[in-house]
Amino acid sequence: MFNLVLAIARNTFREAVRDRVLYNLVLFVMLLTGAAIFIGELSGGQERKIIVDLGLSAMLLFGVFIAIFVGVGLVYKEIERRTIYAIFSKPVGRGEFLVGKYLGLCLTLLVNVLVMGLGVCLALLYVNRGWDPLIISIWPSILLIYFELTIVTAVALLFSSFSSPALSALLTFLIFIIGHFSADLKNLSTLAPSAATRWLLAALYYILPNLANYSFIAGAAHGHSPDPTRLLAATVFAAVFVTVLLASATLVFSRRNFK
Amino acid sequence: MADVPKRKTTSLLLVTVAGLITAASLTHWLDTHTSAPDPTLQEQELYLSAGAARRMSLGFNALVADWYWMRSLQYVGRKILNAREHLELDDLGKLNLKLLAPMLDTATALDPEFIEAYEYAAIVLPPIDVNEAIRITRKGIDANPNAWRLYHQLGYIYWQQRDYATAARIYEQGAAISGAPEWMKAMKARMAVEGGSPATAREIYIRLYEQSGDQKIRDMAWRRLLQLDSAKEIENINKVLNAFRSRTGRCINSWTEIAPAFRAAGLGMDATGAPLDPTNMPYRLLVERCSVELAPQSEIPKH
Fold first, then answer.
1. Residue A42 is nearest to which of B73, B112, B114, comparing CB atoms?
2. Chain A positions in Cβ-Cβ contact with residue B59 (cut-off 8 Å)
3. Is B299 near chain A, with CB under 8 Å?
């Protein structure tokens, strides 16, 4: 079973590479190179901070776009091309198929994030004219960005298991936005006048992922690393939440009729 | 037949290039034929409050903070350029920089650890809005209780307001932070005893020069130190000039008449014997008052 999942994941990764998904790295490199060369004129001595902020924010933004736009097409493309029939004619379960697809895209995102992380380190070396402690301290923050992307990918996959790509992309993007507004949901849940609204908002707060927990870009730019307990909790949360989403996606996808 | 695709490619390329040139020309024409923007509109309040900007930035708050920071620098820089005179960073009160406080407030709300933005607020804002300067610096202290540098900045604001007692208290609080340098303690004592003295001013500017990461603030502190040096030199030169006038009943006709006294006082002089300020620019003699002042071309701040 595990070999089947790995085979699908490998194939999904290859397909993403063939689809030139990693071409965004070229844009990223151009952005960072431009920033490293020109930002000194505009930043009032804050080149290192701005390189880290810009690099990690671009990593998150490009990653979210890949997670959403590639993620929503993972299942849909197979149905559209009718290759899904060939896949399911083999001893491949629907859950294995989804998990394989998910892991393949996560591998693509991992390569993307690693290369971008190295790009930020090189830009820091250039701006600082030598070694910079930020080169080490930004990696825990990059790990958190990666975990956020794995959650967004799982959300995209869940929506794409029962909806059209356009609607799935929209819904996933909304979840990304709401995920960053979680603190407001919690505040509102305590301030709302009616008990039903309070209960609904509190339920939403606990059901939806609090993506603000994965934002540590500002801290990373000041040379801080997230507290290990927070990092561990965020990792466990991502693992649990992704498992829930993949299980739900499998549940929905298992009931889909392709005839 | 083989020429057709080539001709087609050439035509498409020509259309693309010609289109881009036309678009650029039109943009230029529009720029030159549009009336200048209303300055009152440019000075309108920011669309977003600091809190709203923080919420709406999603996970990109650090990047948006950088954008507000750079916008603040551009805003101040543009106003200084338009003023067409040399102004010190700590003396921009007449430039109507009313958007600076909200922009720095937003930058620091988006990135509460942005020490340089608080520092900039502490240096630039006091002549514009001292209450906002104090509020933003205190906000920085609340968000970064271990940043002793912010206590130095806050003490500097109170020192500028000649509130030496509060400044001394702030330096005392800053000195109590672990990792704070010894001079914070000394500054507290000096502030309490001789807050208004040139020696205290010198100490403040030396520390600003040493501690700031912003080259513009360092330059400002350096020029303020030169100003203190030149104030001392002007005092010495005026003493020599007064002594000459008491002795002869007139002011000097040429610098050479008192050159030995300048040499004895260790003052630098140019070929005509005129004493030089710390930037090697000759002081200007005011014969009617029989005193000297900084030459208009001197880079040293005049006030």
1. B73
2. 57, 60, 148, 180, 211-212, 214-215, 217
3. no
User: Among residues B163, B187, B222, which one ends one of the domains?
Assistant: B222
Q: Dump pLDDT digits (tens) for B146-180.
A: 999 999 999 999 999 999 999 999 999 999 999 89
CATH number at residue B55: 1.25.40.10
Residue B77 sits in the same domain as residue B133? yes
Tell me if A60 and B59 make a contact (CB, 8 A cut-off): yes
Task: List the domain range (segments joined by +) for residue B255.
Answer: 231-293
CB atoms A217 and B73 under 8 Å: no
- Is the Cβ of B110 closer than 8 Å to some Cβ of chain A? yes
The CA–CA distances, whole Å, from B105 to B115, B139, B142, B170, B214 equal 12, 9, 14, 21, 18
Compare all CA atoms of chain B with the CA of A217 and give the residue at the minimum distance. B62
Distance separating alpha carbons of residues A125 and B175, to the nearest angstrom: 35
State whether B184 and B237 are in the same domain. Answer: no
DSSP B258: G
pLDDT in tens, B195-231: 888 888 888 899 888 888 788 888 889 999 999 999 9
One domain, residues B199 and B145: yes
Residue A240, both tokens: 């649990």
CA distance A235 to B158: 47
Q: What is the pTM of this model?
A: 0.80
Helix (H, G, I), strand (E, B) or coil at B141: helix
Whether residues B137 and B261 share a domain: the answer is no
The residue among B168, B189, B222 that closes a domain is B222
Question: CA-based angle A225:A132:A52, to the nearest 5?
Answer: 60
Would you kindly state where each structural domain of chain A is located, as residue ranges?
Answer: 2-254
Pair B55, B93 in one domain = yes
Residue A20: Cβ-neighbour burial (10 angstroms; 0-12, 13-18, 19+) = exposed
